[in-house]
Amino acid sequence: MAINLQKGQKINLSKKSGTSIGEILINLNWNSRPVKKGILSGFLGGGSGIDLDLGCLFELKNGIKGTVQALGNSFGSFTNPPFISLDGDDRTGSNTEGENLRINGNKIAEIKRILVYTFVYEGVANWQQADAIVTVKYPNAEDIVVKMDNYNSPNLMCGLVLFENVNDETFSVEKIVQFYTGHQELDRAFNWGMKWKVGHK
To answer: Is 180 helix (H, G, I), strand (E, B) or coil?
Structure first.
């Protein structure tokens, strides 16, 4: 049975005594169907679907900060710093697997915090139409579900989930679901302190 995390709620990932957390998989799935507008929309194409990108800000214990995202081809690494990797880039939302970030839970002592986000790369910021759901999966534990159930924003960026190191043993997981105009505003809201420039994929 999955745990449906509420906004502002924070829980710790559970693990068996003496074992590591293992691989943490963060999956983003959404509906890419275009919004239908008017009786002629079927003949005129009805607009394009939405392209959401999954990514994260990370901060390591050694002070290194950065992003893992398809924009800028920053796909990360599971076995080397930052110990976070992005599987790929689903341009359409039609992939039943969605997009996946993987965190190496065996390297938790190296990681200070991770802020998972999604942003609209193409299409209109119609979050209700996108109906996005984030699922956190890890071994021998219930899935954690984060629903994007706050839709009323024209902004293209959404902070989803914040992972924070707890005594180098586990992560706390907090549901954020807050909207921002872009990477810089998200950065400022969580005091990440990075410099930003326009990127492409």
So the answer is: strand
- Per residue in 134-163, is it b (16+ CB within 10 Å) or e — as a string? bbbebeebeebebbbeeeeeebbbbbbbbb
The DSSP line for 45-107 is ------EEEEEEEEEETTS-EEEEBTTTTB-EESSSTT-EEE----SSS--TT-EEEEEEGGG
Please check whether residue 142 is in contact with residue 171, taking contact to mean a CB–CB distance below 8 angstroms: no
In the structure, what pLDDT confidence band is assigned to residue 44 with cuts at 50, 70 and 90? very low
Is residue 85 within 8 A of residue 69, CB to CB? The reply is: no
Helix (H, G, I), strand (E, B) or coil at 176: strand
